[in-house]
Design a protein that fits this description.
The structure holds 2 protein chains of 2 kinds. By secondary structure, chain A is an all-alpha fold. Chain A has 17 helices and 4 strands. In chain A, the strands form 2 sheets. Chain A has a two-stranded antiparallel sheet with strand order 1-2. In chain A, strands 3-4 form a two-stranded antiparallel sheet. In chain A, a hairpin with a 2-residue loop joins strand 1 and strand 2. In chain A, helix 4 runs parallel beside helix 6 and helix 14 packs antiparallel against helix 17. The longest helix of chain A has about 30 residues. The two termini of chain A are about 30 Å apart. Chain B is α/β, with parallel strands linked by helices. In chain B, about 40% of the residues lie in helices and about 25% in strands. A 6-stranded mixed β-sheet of chain B has the order 6-7-8-3-9-10, with helices on both faces. A 4-stranded antiparallel β-sheet of chain B has the order 2-1-4-5, covered by helices on one side. In chain B, helix 3 packs parallel to helix 6 and helix 5 packs across helix 6. The longest helix of chain B is centred in the middle third of the chain and has 24 residues. The chains are: A mainly alpha, B alpha/beta. The interface between A and B is large, with 40 and 48 residues.
Chain lengths: ~425, ~260
């Protein structure tokens, strides 16, 4: 019995290592880790600090990974131009928060439901919001869907912020968003310490961490990071299943030419609604697990910026490719976002930089760039986008043939070479 | 092939604003025939096509398919009933391979359900069905001699190859009646013969075709029954020989001998 289990595990591990996509993701992540480690060492971090830096990068990458994958289902597969990602994240996060927050917790007020139920409720609410948005908009052309979704996402954000909805009494039960003060609720990241207690011997992680200089909160943080990575992997798995199926084939056909899909007997509206519901539910879950991980959110987390960042990450990785989505998430969050911020936080005081760009041109340009790296990264993102649009609009993996079928289409040819 | 599936168009009328594109068109397509629909530019052929296939809802009149009134149904509902069209300008799904294009077409696939695609236990049946489809696709691609292009992006095909793919793809839906909108436009003579050969072979198997063509000669040489449209109405219909001598038709084509 144990031998078969060992065999299965060995086979699974071998599959994973042989998988070129996974290797690609691993190498990219490894590259980001390497640069981050070197920078952290240069900044004088100890082991605990380095580990914590890598943890923060991974949390960031996993968060983006989830959202980019969800958007890939909309934009990459189906061509649905949803630029209301932040709004659906907000609904998922806030509804989960309100459902799970104990009534006595302030600010905001909640129902105190068990967290798994609250999470399902949040996803369901985001899915319903998605369907309600999509219903009128899907009859129209893609650009109108974009306008509707971006408008909706702002309406959602401003509603959350509004004092009117901060506390509402419905049939004697008080619920609310907390308005501008934000909302507190049981932190998803508490799942980490709960898991450590639950698993036999899990608590040994704390002394083990302490022995190598990793503090207790960093240990729980690492466990929560693993939970996030597991969710990202689950998103990836789900998206691959959807993509490699007749369902995914219809989605691709809708993206390419909806009239053709309907002329071939596909009820495209139903497909689009389903996809909108699933993608929005995933966005809601991703928002809760990532932006909502500390147990407190306010409206500022859901500004439209995040939608555009997720889009940029998807464009870098390649719309239509799930592996590309994850790569785009890592590159955007790690290389373009986190590392420059890390540099500006740790090295700026060391550099004596010129005050203006003109001064910098005649002197210490490098010093100027480092000192302003945090702001300049947005310039870099813009330049990268322009370059990508001109040179490689399909992103890193967007043009790769990822056949939408549940089987290998190259095999199974009658009288042909069997390579199935 | 189900029995008794002729197409009947009855008093079809389509207005766009003040313009009447189709003005009381009526005709019948008999089962197992290759019927041609011709007419000068602006005669209303494509609009008639779009009314039949549900792209437009006609202002008045009815379309019957296999005895059922299909007027005003959505394109996908009409396609599911076995009335499938191709497009005047070949509309390939360019960023999908030829094989994916073909696999898309079959109706009512199990895996078109989201749940069946995702839930591990249900997915086995989907994979099984995909294997069967794959075999059918290979056969059809070989029949149209485009099997060597199977894993190309459809967008990389030449104009003629696209027309072949489009017909092959329509065939994968297992239709009863195929509406072909200028299937030979922009196709070189060699490919044109190949396409016509395939169409005749399929007709012999029992498929019914309604062919819209701009090129009179093609229709005259290949169709047993010809419908001539002019200014939104049916001007004449009958065997090619009779059409050639029809005074009204000669007149409509500006006195050109046809």
């Amino acid at each position: 019995m144990s031998q078969t289990v060992t065999g299965a595990v060995t086979a699974a591990v071998r599959d994973l290592v042989d998988d070129s996509d996974l290797r690609m993701i691993g190498l990219t992540m490894g590259g980001v880790y390497l640069v981050a480690t070197l920078l952290a060492i240069a900044a004088g971090y100890d082991v605990g600090g380095i580990v914590n830096t890598l943890r923060a990068i991974t949390v960031f990458a996993a968060g983006y990974g989830m959202l980019v994958l969800a958007l890939n289902l909309h934009w990459g597969y189906t061509g649905l131009f949803n630029i209301g990602v932040a709004g659906f994240m907000a609904i998922g996060t806030y509804v989960t928060a309100i459902l799970s927050a104990p009534p006595e917790l302030s600010p905001g007020a909640g129902l105190g439901l068990p967290i798994p139920i609250a999470v399902l409720g949040g996803m369901l609410a985001a899915a319903i919001a998605g369907v309600l948005t999509a219903l009128p908009a899907l009859k129209m052309r893609a650009d109108y869907l974009a306008i509707v979704t971006v408008a909706l996402s702002e309406i959602i954000r401003l509603s959350i912020k509004s004092q009117t909805l901060a506390e509402v009494s419905v049939a004697g039960v008080t619920v609310g968003t907390g308005g501008g003060r934000g909302i507190s609720y049981p932190a998803p990241s508490d799942a980490a310490s709960w898991l450590i207690e639950l698993v036999p011997g899990g608590t040994l992680l704390y002394p083990a961490g302490a022995a190598v200089g990793i503090a207790r909160p960093v240990v729980t943080g690492l466990v929560y990071m693993l939970i996030l990575v597991a969710f990202t992997a689950a998103f990836y798995w789900l998206l691959v299943q959807i993509g490699q199926s007749p369902f995914g084939r219809v989605l691709k056909a809708i993206r390419e030419d909806e009239l053709v899909a309907s002329a071939l007997g596909k009820d495209t509206r139903i497909f689009k609604l389903k996809v909108f519901a699933v993608g929005c539910a995933l966005m809601g879950l991703g928002g809760y697990l990532w932006l909502g991980r500390s147990g407190f959110v306010n409206d500022l987390s859901f500004r439209p910026d995040i939608t555009f960042f997720v889009f940029v990450a998807l464009i870098i990785g390649g719309a239509g490719s799930n592996t590309g989505s994850v790569l785009g998430g890592i590159i955007f969050s790690g290389v373009l976002f986190y590392l420059p911020q890390f540099i500006s936080q740790n090295f700026v005081r060391a550099a004596r930089a010129p005050d203006t760009f003109v001064e910098a041109l005649s002197g210490d340009l490098a010093g100027y760039l480092v000192a302003n790296i945090s702001a300049l990264r947005f310039v870099a993102i813009g330049v990268l986008l322009v370059w990508l649009m001109q040179r490689r609009p399909e992103g890193i993996l967007g043009h790769r043939i990822e056949a939408a079928a549940a089987i290998d289409l190259r095999g199974g040819r009658p009288e042909g070479p069997e390579d199935d | 092939m189900t029995e008794g599936v002729p197409l009947r168009v009855d008093g079809l009328r389509m207005e766009f604003g003040g313009i009447t594109a189709v003005d009381g068109t009526s005709f019948v397509v008999e089962e197992g025939t290759l019927t041609g629909l011709i007419g000068p530019n602006g005669a209303g052929k494509s609009t008639t096509f779009n009314c039949i296939t549900g792209v437009y809802t006609p202002t008045a009149g009815h379309v019957y398919f296999g005895g059922e009134d299909i007027t005003g149904l959505a394109p996908h509902q009409i396609a599911r009933r076995g009335l499938v069209r191709t497009f005047q300008i070949a509309r390939e799904l360019e960023e999908m391979t030829v094989f994916e294009n073909m696999m898309l077409a079959p109706q009512g696939q199990r895996g078109e359900s989201l749940l069946a695609s995702v839930v591990p236990g249900l997915r086995d049946a989907v994979i099984e069905e995909e294997r069967e489809l794959r075999t059918a696709v290979w056969e059809t691609l070989e029949f149209f001699e485009i099997d060597h292009l199977a894993h190309e992006y459809a967008g990389n095909l030449s104009g003629g190859q696209r027309k072949l793919l489009e017909l092959a793809r329509a065939l994968m839906t297992d239709p009863d009646l195929l509406l072909l909108d200028e299937p030979l436009a922009g196709v070189n003579p060699t490919l044109e013969n190949k396409l016509l050969e395939r169409i005749h072979a399929l007709r012999a198997e029992g498929y019914t075709f309604l062919l819209v063509e701009h090129d009179m000669e093609v229709i005259m040489e290949n169709c047993a029954h010809v419908i001539v449209m002019h200014q939104g109405r049916v001007l004449a219909e009958g065997a090619p020989a009779a059409i050639r001598e029809d005074a009204a038709v000669i007149d409509a084509y500006l006195g050109e001998p046809v």
